[in-house]
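INTERNAL AUDIT FORM
Audit reference: QA-55
Scope: verify that the stored structure record matches its stored sequence.
Auditor: D.O.
Record contents follow.
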Amino acid sequence: MRKGKIGAPDDLMRRLGRGEIELTHEAFHTLQPWRAAAHLRELLMACGVLPAVDKQLCLFESWLVGHLAVIAEPEPAQIIRRFATWSVLPKLRTAADRRPLTPGSQKYATGQVKHATAFLNWLSDHDLTLTACRQTDIDRWHVEHKEHNRSTVRPFLLWCQTIKLTRRFRLPPPQARRAAPLSHSDRLSFLGRLLTDDSLPPRSRVAAVIILLYAQPCSRVVRPTIDDVIHDNGQVLLRLGEPFSPVPAPFAELLLTWIDNRDNMNTATNPDSRWLFPGRRAGQPLHPNGLSSQLNDLGIPTTAARAAAIRQQVLEMPAPVVADALGYHNKTTTRLRNETGGTWSRYASGDHTRSPPGWVPRGTGDS
């Protein structure tokens, strides 16, 4: 933006200095343009001027203020405000207390509110209200809408029933869709190329190997810091869960070289960044969506690659070990073990004497 334009970053700074903008997160929710306000807020949090709050939570709260402002009718606006305040936001905050929220979490929360609003608009278009809505109306809405709409509005309808805004409804169960994993040979081929092809971008190589070896989504790949990489007595470990995962020799060399030559380290906002994959914003790692796009440009399907990696892990090791070391829920790894025909059905949860994940299959350059 041009210098001096109302709402530009320098203008926001002047208004802060004059006391026209309160130094609170609530005040930043309403500032425009939102990108400049978000960047300034991140700088203030990085400097300790504002309390640290999860970035995705901030984005959702700022979006919610604007969304509520454009709902014309007071009654739907009140319902949506209550749903967001008492159902969506508490779940986001609880999740943020456990670990940093992913852009996907924020997108899903935003989608819940959007689809709840769209459902109320649909009722209004059909001269209906929540209290007058019957099972036949719910069935008609489901017939008219796609699976994504149905699954995203489901939490709102359940919430309406819980607080007795509506009568009880029979809702169709959500349908889980899973990406087909890569074949084992394709996964080995990708690993071999990433570990040996020096013409590929170093950042993409390191991130893709983490996905293919440790079954991490892009939202988790960007979260480790260089302090999560331990180099001691010739052994390299990577902390993704507990215990740390060993890094095999072909990847260890690549990983340590990357740490010494990370990009995005010469900006004013990141001179001392500890992120393994520093982003361009103050105190922030690389954005998962940007990383995913970079890997897709290399022809690496991140979701399918992760699915192949986790299935191979539960074939090689007990599901509880894989769950703890890679940050998965034990139920997830147990289900995958059963689906893939794993042989660890009698393994006792809590017996973590076996080595955690971190192997490189034969054929990828391991000597």
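Auditor finding: record pair retrieved intact. Residues 74-98 form the longest helix (25 residues).
Action required: none
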